[in-house]
Amino acid sequence: NAGVTQTPKFQVLKTGQSMTLQCAQDMNHNSMYWYRQDPGMGLRLIYYSASEGTTDKGEVPNGYNVSRLNKREFSLRLESAAPSQTSVYFCSLSAGGLRGYTFGSGTRLTVV
Amino acid sequence: GQQLNQSPQSMFIQEGEDVSMNCTSSSIFNTWLWYKQDPGEGPVLLIALYKAGELTSNGRLTAQFGITRKDSFLNISASIPSDVGIYFCAVQNYGGSQGNLIFGKGTKLSVKP
Question: Nearest Cβ partner of A59 from B1, B97, B106?
């Protein structure tokens, strides 16, 4: 997963707490994505960013916000965490073309 | 939203056996991808299929893009313990300008040593 750094790797939150998941790239790709992975559900798109300064909702955006202040970083924020947001979160990049999708190693979030 | 139906959900096989899994969709897609996810890691691309009817190999892995463009299968020959993991099919979402991937729910492969 070189080129995509996700932090933190693990996090436990109490219901109602807030936190920001960070994703940083050194591959100079325009498109960045946040997915969540739940058991038996595959990966589902939360938000994406086609370029610096632009973001848009994916399939499951409720309860999340994102920020793409520069080309390198794409952050995912949970304003008031809920147990339903317990999941593994993956950041992904695309340079265009199908072989250009790279995934980070994930953030495992538990909300109690 | 668009869905990919992947089967089987899980399988246990004896080392050395061949494995087959497939993915279907009610919609036509112009490309199909197969990913593998090891425990604690993100998905890694195994095979990409760009043309209907195409059969592509990567070592012991062989994947085919269905002629109807609505399905694909992945075969693993002579399985070994390191084949353990979750295998996902995926297609590119052409709706709007997202360019994201749509994933199947995965096939969890466990190998009996």
Answer: B1
- Among all residues of chain A, which has the CA nearest to that of B7? A40
Residues whose CB falls within 8 Å of the CB of residue A61, separated by 6 or more in sequence, listed in order: A46, A47
How far is it, in rounded angstroms, from Cα A64 to Cα B68?
A: 37
Rounded to the nearest integer, the mean pLDDT of chain B is 90
Contacts of B63 (CB under 8 A, 6+ apart): B32, B34, B46, B47, B49, B55, B56, B57, B72, B73, B74, B75
Rounded to an integer, what distance in angstroms lies between the CA atom of residue B106 and that of residue B46?
A: 14
Q: Residue B76: enclosing H or E segment and its boundaries?
A: strand B71-76
In chain B, residues with a C-beta closer than 8 Å to the C-beta of A45 are 93, 98, 100-101
User: How far apart are the C-alpha atoms of A89 and A64, rounded to whole Å?
Assistant: 12
pLDDT higher than 60, residue B95: no
Residue whose C-alpha is closest to residue A106's, from A15, A38, A51 = A38
